[in-house]
């Protein structure tokens, strides 16, 4: 039975994590795990994440303007994500997880700094057919090693020069597929705790996560493209620094 203090903590954490996700389109699992891990074991924190992560990603996916078009464009990438994640899910419980997290954090920091300097790259449409599945598999393998879905999926999706709302929806598609594939992969690897563990806490976490995401989306609608770009890369930078420092300490 959760105490009043625990319920209040869960609510505050997921409100903040949902707000971040609503503004930049990602970050809920990382923010929530980082804050919850201070007061509870990682397995318990991960259990609390299951429902809020899946539901907010689905919301982000289906509230955008171009689901059908994006899915047709990116389906080979999504297939690659599933293959790579299921194949590499066992890495998440391996001995080198912290090294992989540190490397991922460093890559995110570098990419964010390049983005802030406007030194990004563009993927020509004629190359998407062969690059998309490779990016998907690579993203899946990184997800399997770290539990984080962003590299190389985020840089690649941004290189497609999508409109900001299409980009956020594409991120929702990628993260939804990654979440489901990771769950399947961990289940096959025997690394998941009981599916019903902490279900009450996970359900309670959903409402503040959705509220935070709703507020964040409203803020994003008021942003100019340039402001969104700045916030987007600042979010990546913060995420990368967190992963690198957490692995080093």
Please characterize this protein's 3D structure.
With 249 residues, the chain is an all-alpha fold. It is built from 10 helices and no strands. It has helices at residues 4-24, 28-36, 42-62, 67-88, 97-116, 128-146, 153-159, 164-189, 199-221, 225-248. It starts with a helix and ends with a helix. The mean pLDDT is 82.
Short description:
The chain has helices at 4-24, 28-36, 42-62, 67-88, 97-116, 128-146, 153-159, 164-189, 199-221, 225-248. The chain is an all-alpha fold. α1 packs antiparallel against α2 (28-36).
Write the layout of secondary structure elements.
Layout: H1 4-24, H2 28-36, H3 42-62, H4 67-88, H5 97-116, H6 128-146, H7 153-159, H8 164-189, H9 199-221, H10 225-248
Helix pairs in contact: 1-2, 1-9, 2-3, 3-8, 3-9, 4-6, 4-8, 5-10, 7-8
Features:
249 residues, mainly alpha
Oligomeric state as shown: single chain
The largest β sheet comes out as: none
**DSSP strand tally:** 0
Helical run tally? 10
Average pLDDT for all residues: 82
What are the segments in which pLDDT stays under 50 over at least 5 consecutive residues? Answer: none
How much helicity do the residues have?
over 70%
Shape, please? globular
Whole-angstrom Rg? 17 Å
Structural class given helices, strands, pairing? mainly alpha
- Strand share of the residues? under 5%
Give the end-to-end Cα distance, rounded to a whole number of Å: 32 Å
H/E element string?
Answer: HHHHHHHHHH
